[in-house]
Write a structure and sequence with these properties.
Layout: H1 14-17, H2 19-26, H3 30-46, H4 54-59, H5 64-69
Length: about 80
């Protein structure tokens, strides 16, 4: 997925570095992961940063099922 991003300031390896967070956040569901990354990429274009950060990822609202699969405290890392 990261290779497909066309963000000017995105650093390769960013998503891999956040792999554990992304997995917990999406419960390993590919559709939720795709939505999360796409929404964060769009937000980075809107705010002109042109890079995905953990803060942008955290600000994305996921689908109801993904939110329900998260356990309290799972996203602190």
């Amino acid at each position: 997925m990261e290779v497909a991003l066309r963000l000017r300031h995105h650093r390769p390896g960013t998503l891999e570095r956040h792999a554990e967070y992304l997995h917990r956040r999406t419960a390993g569901v590919m559709g939720s992961l795709s939505h999360l990354i796409r929404a964060a990429a769009l937000a980075s274009i809107e705010d002109s940063s042109q890079r995905i950060t953990k803060k942008l990822l955290a600000d994305v609202h996921l689908d109801v099922r993904a939110q329900e699969r998260q356990r309290p405290g799972d996203l602190s890392a």
